[in-house]
Give the backbone structure.
Amino acid sequence: MASTTRFLSASVKAYVGRALRETGAALKLRGEAEIFSRHRPTMTFNNKAPFKTNDTFIAPTASVIGDVTCWDQSSVSYKAVVRADAGHSVTIGFCSSVGEGSVVCTLPASVKELESTFPPDVQIGHYVTIGSGCVLKSCRIDDIVTIGDKCTILEGSLIENHVILEAGSVVLPYQRIPSGQKWAGNPAAYVSDLTPEEKESIQAKSNKVHDLALEHAIEFLPYGYSYVHLEDIEKESAGKEVLRSG
């Protein structure tokens, strides 16, 4: 009986809360007020707040949660999720990026260490580009690496410096990809050694992604664009007055 009462009470609260929110949104719309998203790109979890620098870009629809460290010029793109909510940390290095819709997470809190005796954290080095739709779990990626779209990198795996992982590849648990190589497939397998040009292209790609993220950071304003529209109207009115007076 008590459980039924609690269920009904929670249902009523949820229903009333939703009705109030929808009413408020309808009144704002009726009054031509701007409606702001309730989504929070960063969120503290268990007293662990994400750390980001002034030139880190976290997209407004991304979710960065818990013990996450974002180095300078790093970026987390739209609808990407970076979760460090299980007592293990996530680090995103300098000029590294997490692509659209990718998920970066760790093993659960019950796992204290990997079979390799390392902690089940996620370490993403410097100049690492992670494509869209990827999944990374308790793995380590060293510096200057390109991860193609829709790759899966599982727990305990290690990707060393100067590596290109082709799109759709799956890196198995505790698999190691040596430095200076290109890998692809499911499971991931050696394809070829990288040429000097391919090695240079990795860092160039990271810089290009950062430049684009910087443009998005400049364009994104957390308080809407109403004042921009108002300024345009004022300029247009001033121009008309000049024409009339002329």
The mean pLDDT is 87.
